[in-house]
Amino acid sequence: MVHIKHPYHDLAQGRWLRGNLHAHTTRSDGERGPEAVIADYARRGYDFLAITDHDITTTAAECAAWAAASGMVLLPGNEVTAGGPHLLHIGAERHVPASADRQAVIDQITGQTTGGFAVVNHPNSHANFDQCPIAMMRDWKGYIGIEVFNGVAGRADGSAYAANKWDMLLAEGRCAWGFANDDTHAAAGDIELGWNMVNATARTPAAIIAALRAGRFFASTGVVIESIEVRDETIHIATRNAQRINALMNTGKRFARSDGRTIEVRVPDGATYVRFECWGAGESFAWTQPFFLTRS
Ligand SMILES: [Zn+2]
Ligand SMILES: [Zn+2]
User: Fold this and answer.
1) Which of 3, 85, 214, 236 could staple 264 via S-S, CB 3.0–4.6 A?
2) What Å distances lie between residue 147 and 45, 153, 290, CA to CA?
3) With left for phi above 0 and alpha for psi between -120 and 50, is residue 89 left, alpha or beta?
4) Which tens digit of pLDDT belongs to each residue from 65-84?
5) Ligand 1 is a single-atom ion; what residues have CB below 5 A from it?
6) Is residue 61 part of a domain?
7) Ligand 1 mean position to 6 CA, how many Å?
8) What spatial distance separates the first Cα and last Cα of the chain, rounded to whole Å?
9) CA atoms of 46 and 196, how far apart (whole Å)
10) pLDDT tens-digit profile of 139-171?
11) CB neighbour list of residue 136: distance below 8 Å, 6 or more residues apart
12) Does 245 map to a domain?
C-alpha cells in the first residue's frame, strides 16, 4: 500500500490567487519606485506581491498602506543579499540583517511569530550556473523551498531554471516547494515572467502565507493547472493549456508523459516522490509541488 503525502487536499474549498514574491524598486537596484511597481502588478490583475529589495525590508505598515491604495495583498519581506547566496524573507515581522552565516539568517526568519519563511533564490544564476551551491542547500535547515524559475536570471548569466537541484533535494527526502518569481528590476519587460498560483482560504496576508508554507500552490510561467486529484495510488492533473505533461520521479527521471492537457499516472515502484512539469506554448510551464510516497 502506497501513501501519497501532498499539499493539494480539498482545493475546491479555497480560491486561486496569483502572486509574485520577488521584486525590486529604487530602494535598491530596481528602476521604478515601489508605488509604480505595485500599480503595474495591480493593473495586470495580480492578487499578491512582495517588494523584496536587497537587504531592505518592507514593513507590515507599509504593506497595509500599499494594499489599501492598490487593492492587492502586499507581503512584507526582503532579499537577504550581502555575504552569500540570496534568500527571500517573506512575511517578515522585522528585518533580519544579512550575515555570512546563512543558517543563522534562516533561523532568525523562521523564529519570527508571523509565520514568515525563507526561499533560496535563483540557485543556477551567475556565470558559474551555481549562485547557490547544492552543498549549502543540503546543509541548511528550515528554508521552505527554492526558486525553480527566476525571470530576471533568464536575461543574465546562468540559468533561470533550477529543477536539477530541486530533484536532488527531493530525492534526498527534503520537502522543498518550487517557486516561480519575476525578480523584477527593469521598468519594462520584467513582469509576468513567472508567478505562483496559491490556493488560499482568504485573500489576506495570513491566509496566503499559510498556504505558501503548506505548499498549496503551483509555480507557473504560463500554464494553468485546473485540478489536481489523488485517488488511492493514482494522481490526475488537468490543465487549461498544456501541450505536454511529464511525470518525474527520483532523480529527475521521467516515467510517464502525456501529449495533451491532462495526465493520469499510477505512482511507480521505487519512487520516493513524483512531480509534474506541464509544458505549454512557447516557453510556458507549470510545476506542481512534489507528491511524497511512503509504503506500508
Ligand atoms: Zn538575487
Ligand atoms: Zn532579486
Assistant:
1) 236
2) 22, 11, 14
3) beta
4) 999 999 999 999 999 999 99
5) 86, 121
6) yes
7) 29
8) 5
9) 10
10) 999 999 999 999 999 999 999 999 999 999 999
11) 84, 85, 102
12) no
Q: Please tell me the distance from the alpha carbon of residue 197 to that of residue 30, in angstroms, as a whole number.
A: 24
For 155, the grid coordinates are: 536575461
Q: Are 223 and 195 in contact (CB under 8 A)?
A: no
SS3 state at 68: helix
The DSSP letter of residue 55 is T
Which CATH number goes with the domain that contains 107?
3.20.20.140
pLDDT digits (tens, 9 = 90+) for 271-295: 999 999 999 999 999 999 999 999 9
Q: At how many degrees (to 10) do helices 34-43 and 60-70 cross?
A: 50
- Ligand closest to Cα of 87 equals 1
Let me know if residue 251 belongs to a domain.
no
Q: Which residues surround ligand 2, an ion (CB under 5 A)?
A: 79, 183
Instruction: Give dist(CA 182, CA 201) in Å, integer.
Output: 24
**Residue at 197 is within a domain:** yes
Number of folded domains that form the chain: 1
Q: Which residue has the cell 521584486?
A: 23
Return the amino acid letter for 221: T
Q: What is the pTM of this model?
A: 0.98
